[in-house]
Design a protein that fits this description.
single chain; 133 residues; alpha+beta; Endonuclease, Chain A; 4-stranded mixed β-sheet; 4 helices; 4 strands; 42% helix; globular; EC 3.1.-.-; DNA damage
Length: 133
């Protein structure tokens, strides 16, 4: 049983965004500090990657640990209610992104994923970005 009322749960869910999330803003800030120029949410590319760096042919997906079920992360939880909805929903998210990444690679793009749990520390995030780019 959900500990929130239907109305409150609906309100919470309506506040979840798929663009301009806090993790995404932190990654963009780090990229700017490192001198990278980028584009956001290119509709021209398969899967609309969160960040596109055309100069180096790279796209970044900024994944929420819950929404994309980050292995080994404490945020990777399965809701206790409405499992018949959530389990297939989260699996579809993972499968869709796998297909999107394969298509982008086929089209010549380098792809990287930055997880929500990896953006908390600015220094660590910058080091990760330097390594992947």
């Amino acid at each position: 049983m959900d500990h929130l009322t239907k109305k409150h749960r609906s309100w919470n869910m309506s506040r979840i965004r798929n663009k301009d999330t806090t993790p995404e803003k932190l990654v963009r800030k780090a990229l700017t500090k490192l001198g990278y120029r980028y584009r956001l949410h290119s509709k021209k590319l398969h899967g609309k990657p969160d960040i596109v760096i055309p100069k180096i042919g790279t796209v970044l997906f900024i994944n929420g640990c819950f929404w994309h079920q980050h292995k080994g992360c404490k945020r990777r939880t399965m809701p206790k209610t409405n499992i018949k909805y959530w389990e297939p929903k989260l699996k579809r998210n993972i499968e869709k992104q796998k297909k999107d990444i394969l298509r982008l690679k086929k089209d010549g793009w380098k792809t990287n994923i930055i997880w929500e749990c990896e953006v908390k520390n600015e220094k660590t995030l910058s080091q990760k970005i330097k390594r992947m780019l």
